[in-house]
Specification:
By secondary structure, the chain is α/β, with parallel strands linked by helices. The chain contains 14 helices and 9 strands. Helix 8 crosses helix 10. Bound molecules: phosphoenolpyruvate and magnesium ion (MG). Belongs to the PEP-utilizing enzyme family.
């Protein structure tokens, strides 16, 4: 029994009819790369690099960032690592950047907007990433992209830094977490290499509910059909261009959510390492047809409470 559990942990998540979903980890620290491997992750779907920038007096140097990203990708022993550039702002404030409360609001200079406004910060980070990419397979992911132009601008910066340090070409992906990016998904999918859906922000922006508001936050339920329909639209747009789609927001870690996302056709689910074995089990219990039927039924409801009443496929 114990041996079976052990071998299951390191096997891929296949549905009963043999369809494979990648199950990967969200991490922020080097030690978590090791926990991810132990939990049976097939790679890392999200490195939240802003954690390196929080609770300190100065931004980390290029060298410090390089050492950290290199150690992470080396700890993964050849498995792929999706590294997201800093996503400061919103619920992740940083004092030393001299940003006002207004800049830091959820509708302010978050994510890539800060990178575009302060190219020194993002260029230093990108230099460290392109250097670390010599030590293992890294893909770059950009947060808070709203339009194809946001992506083109950051891609241009990335390419110029790559040439500066003579780094390898990396796949460049877009976080799908602003509803505008879903509307423009057909155009964004033409220029980006992959999508990663951030269900936490996509939910708060689509439902206009602050994800940290003490009274309203519980209404920001990512199982809301609004969110599921947006994910379905973005996934179809990516696949139409032959691009893959991951989900790294909290919905991927929810047992019912993971089954619905699989049914919507996403390719990869990324979550905290501890939840990986349970999500793999949930995928293995179902056929792709069951999962698709579940997703269709969920999208047809008119609120998240109704979706939560649908029994998962067991
Ligand atoms: C998200 O928005 O779902 C996401 C994964 O990013 P974060 O939670 O770090 O904003
Ligand atoms: Mg986000």
């Amino acid at each position: 029994q114990r041996e079976r559990a052990w071998s299951q942990r390191y096997s891929p998540a296949l549905t009963t009819d043999g369809h494979r979903f990648e199950v990967v980890a969200n991490i922020a620290k080097v030690e978590e790369a090791t926990s991810a491997l132990k939990a049976g992750a097939e790679g890392v779907g999200l490195v939240r690099t802003e954690f390196l920038f929080l609770d300190r007096e100065h931004a980390p140097s290029e060298e410090e960032q390089f050492e950290c990203y290199k150690a992470m990708v080396q700890a993964l022993e050849g498995l792929p690592m999706v590294l997201r550039t800093i996503d400061i702002g919103g619920d992740k404030p940083v004092d030393y950047l001299g940003l006002s409360e207004h800049d830091l609001s959820f509708l302010g200079l978050r994510g890539i907007r800060l990178g575009l406004a302060r190219p020194d910060i993002i260029r230093t980070q990108l230099r460290a990433v392109y250097r670390a990419a010599a030590f293992g397979p890294i893909k770059l992911l950009f947060p808070m992209i709203a339009t194809p132009n946001d992506f083109r601008r950051i891609r241009q910066i990335a390419e110029s830094v790559r040439q500066e340090v003579d780094g390898p070409q990396l796949d460049l992906g877009v976080m799908i977490e602003v509803p505008a990016a879903v509307v423009m998904a057909p155009e964004i999918a033409k220029v980006a290499d992959f999508f990663s859906v951030g269900t936490n922000d996509l939910t708060q922006y689509a439902l206009a509910v602050d994800r940290t508001h003490p009274l309203l936050a519980k209404r920001a339920d990512s199982l809301h059909p609004v969110v599921l329909r947006l994910i379905s639209t973005a996934t179809k747009a990516a696949h139409a261009e032959g691009k893959w789609v991951g989900v790294c927001g909290g919905l991927a870690a929810d047992p019912l959510g993971a089954q619905i996302l699989a049914g919507l056709g996403v390719d990869e689910l990324s979550m905290p390492p501890a939840l990986i074995p349970a999500v793999k089990e949930k995928i293995r219990k179902a056929s792709l047809t069951d999962l698709q039927a579940l997703a269709t039924r969920a999208m047809a409801q008119d609120d998240a409470v109704a979706v939560r009443l649908i029994p998962p496929v067991v």
